[in-house]
Design a protein that fits this description.
Layout: E1 30-35, E2 39-44, E3 55-60, E4 68-75, H1 80-90, E5 93-99, E6 102-103, E7 106-115, H2 126-137, H3 172-217, E8 221-223, E9 229-231, H4 237-266, H5 280-283, E10 311-313, H6 324-329, H7 332-338, E11 342-344, H8 372-384, E12 388-393, E13 402-403, E14 409-411, H9 453-470, E15 474-477, H10 485-495, E16 499-502, E17 510-511, E18 514-515, H11 520-532, E19 538-540, H12 542-553, E20 578-581, H13 601-608, E21 614-618, H14 619-622, H15 629-642, E22 651-657, E23 660-665, E24 669-673, E25 688-694, E26 697-702
Parallel strand pairs: 10-11, 10-21, 11-12, 12-15, 15-16, 16-19, 19-20, 20-21
Antiparallel strand pairs: 1-2, 2-3, 3-4, 4-7, 5-7, 6-7, 8-9, 13-14, 17-18, 22-23, 23-24, 24-26, 25-26
Helix pairs in contact: 1-2, 3-4, 9-10, 10-11, 13-15
């Protein structure tokens, strides 16, 4: 909705704090050459320092009125066809026909492509399509997710004892007895796992051989003078794409079964120096039960609230350009009626950057979003509608007001008039004299030393001011990788909010730019951070976002189940501490650091709004009318409330293949995402009733399922 423009704020003085998370500037790595008849050619080279083979990409809308002709020429690369077709699929582009030619190490491939609506690709979109294809075809092993916060954390290396080693001589008898009791079941499990692996490997080899035969059969293809495709000895493009899809799925199944075998073997070992009593011994107190199918965490504290919470991120990256508090005041009633329980508001403080992520005077609550008086009125309005107000808390770093005698910005003003003792000592550019940083460095601004008692006392006092004077109900902690989780717990315990969520944004694991199937280590790092807070804080489930958008964008929904049959994100191991989401102000909006595939937004929301965990809807999507996305979100919100789906709801995954994922939730709902066929009413049964559907998704409820009206 259009909002009135806020009065122009005074220009901030020159300051070393750099704007946070700006979208990385795109390097001009391609030189355009325009030709007549609405077609152009683009020569591309990878943006890194390693020389890459140039690709010639040509778009033509004149030769075929019903499709866009995309021609790609250059040196052949490993899996080039897979990369190109995967890029088209991610952009919701359909390949009608393809002609594949390889000569002396060079490819000359021609594709007839349309949009998902069967139309030509608009000339204005050629550049973005080209960029996506080039990125997909790059030989670089860099992650396709920008390293917003630097290099991904190193994978943990676990040393293991020999499988048959007992802890001590005194334990030998007990150990041997236990081993003998389990050996029969263990042998059967290992035999079954080995057979599964053998069959999966054979399937993958067979498909690879079929692809090799197809490649040999392929011959030169070209577009004639009138733009029509012809082939002397053609290759069926649909057949090739089906084989490529089958190969990807077979490889995933093999990887999944290898992971299952690894899990069986790991169960017979124990990490060096640790007890053999299971995951709880590695996770700290209160962790038992977290890794059992369908169970929730047992930690104490506010975390995600009651379990029935549904959040709305009530702003985007551009909201600071409007008098946003007034805009939200007019929408609170609608948000309450839709079924949301809490609104996540933008950072409320004075800031060097207009979005609020470079805070300066924490007690000054006049921001680009509105005045302190308007903020107070907004919080009051939110609560009058039965909603909770959650503040965005940015305390990893703080921008100073003044410079020291060496010109370094390390003198703070306002009520919290700190000096350089409040700044971590590994921030030499700001002259910090505090202790070393307890987390990752944030180079754009002075990193606050949270080990200092005066810092802890001041921040607890400020949080209590926001809670008791302004009226906030909860906190969303920004960039929690920057300081130890134990300090987050200290601030939660000191302010006792109703809600607490951390943004632990860690890079997923990739190989050659493709997301790895197994993301257990990635989600474990998020679980470990929640444990550092004593379970008092939940965390955004970046693992689920990364896997879900890859599954939808690449037509690889087999990714949506882990090796043990659970959802593959944090929601699969500690659902009560998992905040699931599709997009936020960083990943989407006008920044677009890590966007969800546009064509798959319906599928994404059908997944998070029917599954356990606590879902968070993005403001832009709620009001998006294209393809009825906003209406679908409203219907799904109603269904979640009606059938009492909550953060610990139990999930039984029924199907997870390339084109379809299906799951049963609490034996009340069945959800299917993807274009593939699926129905819960098999064998002629009529047990399930369709209650909601849209582009590539459907939701059924079970007849006689209990409907809640007052959650």
């Amino acid at each position: 909705p259009t909002a009135p423009t806020a009065p122009t704020a005074p220009t901030a003085p020159s300051h070393p704090c750099r704007p946070r998370r700006r979208r990385p500037a795109q390097k001009n790595v391609c030189t355009p050459h325009v030709r007549p008849k609405k077609a152009f050619k683009l020569f591309a080279q990878a943006a890194d320092s390693t020389p890459q083979t140039a690709l010639l990409i040509e778009f033509d809308n004149e030769s075929d009125n019903g499709a866009t002709i995309v021609s790609i020429e250059g040196e052949n690369q490993s899996d080039l066809l897979v990369s190109v077709t995967g890029a088209f699929s991610a952009l919701d582009l359909l390949v009608l026909d393809a002609m594949i030619k390889t000569e002396e190490g060079r490819v000359m491939d021609v594709f007839r492509v349309t949009t998902g609506r069967g139309e030509q690709i608009e000339e204005d979109d050629w550049g973005s399509v080209r960029q996506h294809v080039l990125s997909a075809c790059s030989n670089s092993s860099r992650s396709s997710k920008p390293a917003i916060y630097g290099v991904a954390a190193e994978s943990e290396e676990t040393k293991q004892r020999p499988m048959s080693m007992a802890n001590s001589n005194s334990n030998n008898n007990t150990f041997v007895e236990a081993e003998l009791n389990n050996i029969e079941n263990t042998a059967a499990d290992l035999e079954a796992a080995a057979k599964d692996m053998q069959q999966s490997a054979a399937d993958l080899v067979r498909i690879e051989q079929e692809l090799a035969s197809t490649k040999k059969a392929a011959s030169a293809m070209a577009v004639d003078g009138e733009g029509n495709m012809s082939a002397e000895q053609g290759v069926d493009a649909q057949q090739v794409m089906a084989q490529l899809s089958a190969r990807a799925e077979a490889a995933a199944i093999l990887e999944r079964r290898m992971a299952a075998m690894e899990a069986l073997l790991s169960a017979r070992r124990s990490p060096e120096g640790l007890s053999v009593t299971g995951p709880s011994s590695q996770r700290g107190g209160g962790a038992e039960g977290r890794f059992v199918m369908g169970s929730g965490g047992t930690g104490t504290g506010p975390a995600a609230g009651s379990g029935y919470e549904v959040f709305l991120q009530a702003f985007n990256w551009e909201s600071c350009k409007h008098n946003w508090y007034k805009v939200l005041m007019e929408q609170c009633s609608e948000f309450a009626e839709a079924g949301f329980t809490a609104l996540w508001l933008p950072p409320p403080t004075d800031s060097v950057s207009p979005q609020g992520y470079l805070p300066r005077d924490l007690y000054c609550l006049d921001s680009q979003y509105g005045s302190e008086a308007e903020l107070r009125e907004l919080v009051k309005t939110i609560q009058s509608k039965g909603l909770k107000a959650m503040a965005d808390i940015v305390i990893n770093h703080r921008c100073a007001h003044y410079q020291d005698d060496q010109g370094r910005w390390n003198r703070f003003g306002g009520r919290l008039a700190w000096d350089n003792k409040a700044i971590c000592s590994n921030n030499p550019q700001f002259g910090g004299t505090g202790n070393l940083d307890s987390g990752d460095d944030y180079e754009a601004a002075p990193n606050i030393d949270h080990t200092q008692e005066f810092v802890q006392k001041d921040l607890v006092g400020w949080l209590n001011y926001l809670k008791k004077s302004i009226g906030f109900n909860g906190w969303r902690f920004d960039y929690v990788k920057g300081y130890g989780g134990k300090f987050t717990r200290l601030y939660i315990d000191g302010s006792v909010p109703e809600l607490a969520i951390g943004e632990f944004w860690d890079s997923c694991d990739y190989t050659d730019g493709v997301l790895d199937y197994n993301q257990d280590k990635h989600r474990q790092r998020t679980v470990d951070w929640c444990d550092q807070t004593g379970g008092t804080s939940a965390a955004f489930d970046f693992t689920t976002k990364g896997i879900l958008q890859e599954a939808v964008g690449r037509n690889e929904r087999w990714r949506l189940v882990d090796a043990e049959g659970r959802p593959p994100g944090v929601v699969g191991v500690w659902p009560s501490r998992a905040i699931t989401f599709i997009e936020n102000h960083d990943t989407g909006s006008t920044l677009g650091h890590w966007p969800f595939p546009y064509h798959g937004l319906h599928e994404g929301y059908a997944y998070i709004l029917t599954h356990p965990g606590t879902p968070c809807v993005f403001y832009d999507h709620y009001f998006q009318s294209d393809q009825g996305l906003g209406d679908s979100i409203k219907k799904l919100l109603k269904i979640r409330k009606q059938f009492g789906i909550h953060s610990r709801s139990k999930v039984k995954i029924l199907q997870a293949v390339a084109e379809a994922y299906a799951a049963n939730v609490d034996d009340k709902l069945t959800v299917k995402i993807g274009p593939g066929d699926f129905t819960p009413n098999s064998d002629g049964k009529d047990e399930w009733v369709l209650c909601c559907s849209g582009p590539s998704f459907a939701v059924w409820h079970k007849k006689g399922a209990i409907v809640f009206s007052n959650l």
